Records
---
Amino acid sequence: MACREPNGSCGCKQNEPLVGLNDTARETDDDVWADDDEAGYSMKDQSTADLKRIHTKQGYLDGLTQAQESGLQQGFDEAFPKGAQLGIEVGRLLSRIWCYKDVRTDLFEQAKQDKITGIRIAIKQGVPGILSTAVILRSSPTILPRIF
């Protein structure tokens, strides 16, 4: 690339000749889109290098995939029994909690109904002192619901 001075008297490096390069080297050096591989290789050498690069890359990927799969299988084989046992234990614990909650609620409701029924029977039979107990229970709705 030449400088834009009218008589070429500019002192910039662009006007200095390239030392040690012949004309074809100067032309390819200026060509930004030039391919570096074209200079030293024939088409056969280039395709052989491409094939070697492709096969090397594919071999690396195949080896990597196989190593990952074998490690994954080994990890699964080691951890699955532990996970299954843990799942069984958690299931048993949850079932006990749910049963306890249901039984406790059912037993409480049954005891409450038995108590109410017993008080009603005692009132009908005229057991002494039961009316005062019924009045106390009736005045406190949080203890027992209304029994009359």
---
Amino acid sequence: MLTVNPGKRITASEALKHPWICQRERVASVVHRQETVDCLKKFNARRKLKGAILTTMLATRNFSSKYDAQGEYLRPSSALHGPRQTVLLYLLLNFMSPCLCL
């Protein structure tokens, strides 16, 4: 029903005859229910993983020892430090987008 190209779009009378419209109590509430639940589970898992990664990055940056006992600066040894690693983690988190559901 939702087609950008007007030539491929169904007419108003065809839309009114579509099961999603004329039988919406039975059809719309049941169709794709399991798929939607699965997508929500995947989304929630990705959201939790993203939060855990961001928390780890923050904790590693804020609580890592950057100075030794004499006050000399220590170079971070963690793989999570540095501009290149930060950009890679940022890209990884952004590509963890939620699944697209109907």
